[in-house]
């Protein structure tokens, strides 16, 4: 009863057991079920005595009749009853499966020589044998869609099952508040405490220390965590460790750049704070054809912006058609060359406007921005565009890329395509490419004509000033109607007929791509960094002692095509032994990596043999001389990549522009699988990126978008200051990637050889088996 409590069979008699007067109870096992239970309990002392001492009468023991009221009968345990058949087992036997006959035995054997032999399948006519094919009809066959009317099934009853669950009641959270009231002394206790001598002595003893502590808290916060503040100080926005690009200035013009896009940008090599942008019509090819008459009335322009006047352009350069690319001459920044959409090459001489660009004009400089007539005061300069002789072979193929005048450092190219020494060190040659499958070399010098002394004296006497009604300088008047390319290099396809269509090119010795910073600042940067980028070192004309030997000149170039291909070829013309004519050799290598047209082919300013290519949804980094493929290739991004550029101060950093207006900053020493940071610059496509070094403490990044707005961003300290031995670390990293490519190529060759050997062995086994069978 103590262990089972209310479940016990004796629990109804619990009180009677507790009231029993003696210490021992009599519990009897009723084996014969006289009272219908397994046990009975004697509840009185007299009944216990009578039960233990039976009465003897006539020599026979007579058992006393037990009173039912004095005995508690426990609950009777049920017993299993015998099975009584009602015929259900016959139904179960009828539904069970029994063997009506002995089971059949089959033995399958095969010739031993056929074990492990190869299996050969052959074609046969399905109509020659019966049931040689199975027809799979494309519609439902009614012969196999019969409805079953009657079915024999067996049913057996089981107890009813019920699935249930329980959970505590959930109460929704609610806002609660509590408030307590402090226990205070009574007014009498307060007065006694304030007047006590103990309190006065305590205040007098600690007053001096308390005053010193208050003074220290006024001077400095003792609870300020210096270590935590040290890390947070450089991590905030605008701090030294802030990695974000900050907006420095922006330029847009509602008149000249309205409904136009920016196709190319370039910083002025020598004048600080001056940047030139080429604006083109934001039209498709079909819209250009339909609106060709209207486009003739709107001249194409190159705008010169200055930080001193962010509202009005300082100079306008007119050209016959939209300019896709333009460059400054490294040896003479007043000379500018541009490539137009119609295939023309245009030359400008801005020497008469240099003082205006330098900010020396004094008339109305402050009020031009607020006056609508200020547009008439912006000087406009026309260029020398040679209409017939500078066109490409395809009128719809514009000049999309122009490389610097200082093409070969201080060397030049002869008319036979042979590199020659340029003793004067003046940059006079350019290289252009267009989708007409040609790369052209040009020379802006006047052609040499043999004259006698008498002819020269006669020419001096009869010499008259050239007429120039449009205000075009006479710098390149000698090229009018006579300018032709020195050499024309075609790009024939390697495996098929036809030619490649180049969009961007990169030459090994073309290190005057873009010059950043003033002369004094560049000299300061050169003194700071011994491993300076090539762009910084080409600002002055090299002397004759610094000229390279001719045999060291590399005549190979990389060309990115409109089909996403990267072509590596030699632009030096070869001579036919039979006819003696010069022709372009086929490219040595062609790589298909990008899934869209290549928009960037640019060499690293720190490594002349490292090239960055951008096209489609990926970018790749190549090493010249490695023909196995790119050493680094990015994964496909969600948005198309539109432009890319190397950092001018950090060898491991590059900038990638996207079509959604974001710029991905890649730090190859930090991450190579994803960009270090992504920052949104504009709401539309980014068209150009060009860095600029103002000083060692200020680096700028020019970013143009599809809507014609030019954004000037300030590069943070973390992206402009190289780490210790960063160039050496990147050099080792590139070498490891080259070793990885070589190892991968060896493994591929080894696997191909193993596959070839395996196929030869299988063919030998097959031939041997056929010989045995025959």
UniProtKB/TrEMBL annotation:
InterPro entries with a match to the protein in the record: Dynein_IC, WD40/YVTN_repeat-like_dom_sf, WD40_repeat_dom_sf, WD40_rpt
UniProt entry tagged with the keyword Lipid biosynthesis: no
Domain of life: Eukaryota
Gene Ontology annotations of biological process type: cilium movement involved in cell motility; inner dynein arm assembly
Single GO term (MF): dynein light chain binding
UniProt key word Repeat: yes
Record key words, sorted: Cytoplasm, Repeat, WD repeat
Localisation per UniProt entry: Cytoplasm
One GO CC term on file: inner dynein arm
Primary location group: cytoplasm
PANTHER family: DYNEIN AXONEMAL INTERMEDIATE CHAIN 3, DYNEIN INTERMEDIATE CHAIN
Protein name as catalogued: WD repeat-containing protein 63
Organism: Oncorhynchus mykiss
